[in-house]
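Researcher: Let's walk through a ligand-bound prediction step by step. First, I give you the protein sequence. Second, the SMILES string for zinc ion. Third, you return the three-dimensional complex as structure tokens. Ready?
Model: Ready.
Researcher: Here are steps one and two:
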Amino acid sequence: MSASAVRGCQEGKATPKFLEVKCPRCREAVEVFVYMGGSADKTGRTTADEKCPECGYVIPQGTPSERLVRY
Ligand SMILES: [Zn+2]
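Model: Step three, the predicted complex:
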């Protein structure tokens, strides 16, 4: 993605939103980013693999946020 695509109008773009969720394995807080807006196949899903700092469990990219527990 080029820099010019990042700045400018936000409409129609997927904007990552920061969320703190509980690790499904050990309940430690894990920081994830979830797409908000943009295409329907991406919105509400995690933008990248996020590893639990406590136990090393990986929440895979594309996990729907409704499957995760808010911290
Ligand atoms: Zn964990």
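Researcher: And what stands out?
Model: Residues 23, 25-26, 28, 52, 54-55, 57 surround zinc ion (CB under 6 Å). The mean pLDDT is 87.
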